[in-house]
């Protein structure tokens, strides 16, 4: 997959794609249906996705609480797995935000990227002040020579499939409902960073990861599926993870600490993808380390049983 970040400097081979347009946070089932429509609209054209970095919501409200379901790197990885050939990761800045709807259609879609066909959701808005609608885009496409498909909003077993509803499910400690809408386990991806090695001292060495910039799922302990994506220990593992502020050890910044079952080795610097399968319990403050270890033993036994049944 090729990543194009500047619509004003595009190689000829990167033009002419059939592209889905949106933010694609989480790359959920609704997003996948939009991408599939783009694939079918012009099967002989490169399959593309146009998204925006930073997320417009982050651009306009930089001090708002973290809301993203995945980092830009994790999003790109997921889109590549779906067969996307061109990722138009547009730099969302003052110039792009200031374009009128017609200016966006002409300057970015037609002249800049030369897209052959675009697919958007029924609630898609674009241009300065979000004044452009999906219907406006259809009209611009007719005038400017590119095709437009409006995708219907997808309803799933857990309700409307949307990033907002997925965030709510994760905040409630319902990763299974989130997975139903996503079409995959919600995953937190990143590099393993150094910690205080308390887990090692307790007999439970953990791989520590930052969750900075991401929507925080409900704090607590989870049964997890872990993919080590690089390094000598590359592979898939079962495990248990604690997400939160570690109340046993004072005031701490929230992070994710994952214990891999039946694993020995050094994971520092490796990239992990941790899939949240089931919420086991909230974070607790114990009377002492012996009580904590006893609970960790029970957590791991429960997680093993849950994951063995998948």
From TrEMBL:
<comment type="pathway">
    <text>Cofactor biosynthesis; FAD biosynthesis; FAD from FMN: step 1/1.</text>
</comment>
<dbReference type="InterPro" id="IPR015865">
    <property type="entry name" value="Riboflavin_kinase_bac/euk"/>
</dbReference>
<dbReference type="InterPro" id="IPR023465">
    <property type="entry name" value="Riboflavin_kinase_dom_sf"/>
</dbReference>
<keyword id="KW-0547">Nucleotide-binding</keyword>
<keyword id="KW-0511">Multifunctional enzyme</keyword>
<comment type="pathway">
    <text>Cofactor biosynthesis; FMN biosynthesis; FMN from riboflavin (ATP route): step 1/1.</text>
</comment>
<dbReference type="InterPro" id="IPR014729">
    <property type="entry name" value="Rossmann-like_a/b/a_fold"/>
</dbReference>
<protein>
    <recommendedName>
        <fullName>Riboflavin biosynthesis protein</fullName>
        <ecNumber>2.7.1.26</ecNumber>
        <ecNumber>2.7.7.2</ecNumber>
    </recommendedName>
</protein>
<comment type="function">
    <text>Catalyzes the phosphorylation of riboflavin to FMN followed by the adenylation of FMN to FAD.</text>
</comment>
<keyword id="KW-0288">FMN</keyword>
<dbReference type="Pfam" id="PF01687">
    <property type="entry name" value="Flavokinase"/>
</dbReference>
<dbReference type="GO" id="GO:0009398">
    <property type="term" value="P:FMN biosynthetic process"/>
</dbReference>
<dbReference type="GO" id="GO:0006747">
    <property type="term" value="P:FAD biosynthetic process"/>
</dbReference>
<dbReference type="GO" id="GO:0003919">
    <property type="term" value="F:FMN adenylyltransferase activity"/>
</dbReference>
<dbReference type="InterPro" id="IPR023468">
    <property type="entry name" value="Riboflavin_kinase"/>
</dbReference>
<keyword id="KW-0808">Transferase</keyword>
<keyword id="KW-0285">Flavoprotein</keyword>
<keyword id="KW-0067">ATP-binding</keyword>
<dbReference type="InterPro" id="IPR015864">
    <property type="entry name" value="FAD_synthase"/>
</dbReference>
<dbReference type="InterPro" id="IPR002606">
    <property type="entry name" value="Riboflavin_kinase_bac"/>
</dbReference>
<dbReference type="GO" id="GO:0009231">
    <property type="term" value="P:riboflavin biosynthetic process"/>
</dbReference>
<keyword id="KW-0418">Kinase</keyword>
<comment type="similarity">
    <text>Belongs to the ribF family.</text>
</comment>
<keyword id="KW-0548">Nucleotidyltransferase</keyword>
<dbReference type="Pfam" id="PF06574">
    <property type="entry name" value="FAD_syn"/>
</dbReference>
<keyword id="KW-0274">FAD</keyword>
<dbReference type="GO" id="GO:0005524">
    <property type="term" value="F:ATP binding"/>
</dbReference>
<dbReference type="GO" id="GO:0008531">
    <property type="term" value="F:riboflavin kinase activity"/>
</dbReference>
<feature type="domain" description="Riboflavin kinase">
    <location>
        <begin position="181"/>
        <end position="308"/>
    </location>
</feature>
